[in-house]
Amino acid sequence: TPAAHMTHEWQEIEELSRTARYGPLRDGSVPRRCVRVLHQGRTAVLQDHPGEGAAMVAEARLLEALHGQGLPVPQMLAQEEDWLLREDLPGGSPGGLFSADCSREQLTAVFTQLARLHNVPLAAVVDTLAAQDRWVAVLDPTHPVHGVLRREAIADLSHPYAFASPPVLCHGDFHPGNVLCEGGHVTGIVDWDYAQISYAEFDLAYALLTFAMPQPDGRLVLDTYHSALQIYMSARPLDFRLLDFMVNVAVRCLHDWAVSLPAAHPQRTEWVAHCVALIKTRPWETWHGSEPGR
């Protein structure tokens, strides 16, 4: 049965959002739906989230701005109230949140595009974003699990060189499931609802963790992590002191996301355990110390 919104109609083909299949999140909120649809004789992607009209408008404006900057993002087809309809891009994801399977060619393309994103002039996008530094929630001293990180943050913030990097446009959720590849090319970067003006090192840390996880077993793949970091650094400089800190922040953000999943999600327990293991072992602390260019 075709669904109708104002003057637009479409036929739903396929549910793309993995999380939405299992019901509300643990806090009772409803995940956004992302659905492949048939619209005016061609496939498109519908993002639908009742009650988030302002966020949908902001995301649509951001996509238009990024498309104008030459980044591989979907073109907008229509947007009204709390939904948007966007281009269905070719290619497929090189994995899910914790299941990357990238060739070296794909890894090079992905982390080169991430560096390109961080080089986008803020003036081109700043008016499209309302939220900044979404990751700071894990620094809340009352956080039931990560409050101790607040003390580490205060120590880092007192360092004269800490947080010296200028903020940039960040995707906020840059993982294998949100990148589309075809061969050795990135055909699309999707799901921009966590976009923010923040530190490139947070986006990079989140991407390094998720792309270096062939399976969620409490380990990271050193070769993938090292290669991705070197690819990024060949296109854009970074602050290693800030990256050291942001990897600890990013793994806690991933933990909180896994905890928030619906109880019926079949991989929730596995993913939470994976993040807990990484928080305990922190293998990146040894790896960063040996990186060329540090």
Please give a structural write-up:
About 35% of the residues are buried. Helix content is about 35%, strand content about 15%. β1 (about 5) and β2 (about 10-15) form a beta hairpin. It has helices spanning about 55-70, 105-120, 150-155, 200-210, 220-235, 240-260, 270-280, 285-290, and strands at about 5, 10-15, 35-40, 40-50, 75-80, 85, 170, 180, 185-190, 195-200. The mean pLDDT is about 85. It contains eight helices and ten strands. It has a six-stranded antiparallel sheet, covered by helices on one side. A two-stranded antiparallel sheet has the order 7-10. A two-stranded antiparallel sheet has the order 8-9. It is of the alpha+beta class and about 290 residues long.
Q: Percent of residues in helical segments?
A: 25-40%
Please list the strands of the largest sheet in the order they lie side by side: 1-2-3-4-6-5
The structural class is: alpha+beta
**Main sheet?**
6 strands, antiparallel
Strand content: 15-25%
Q: What is the 3D shape?
A: globular
Q: Number of helical segments? A: 8
The rounded Rg comes to 19 Å
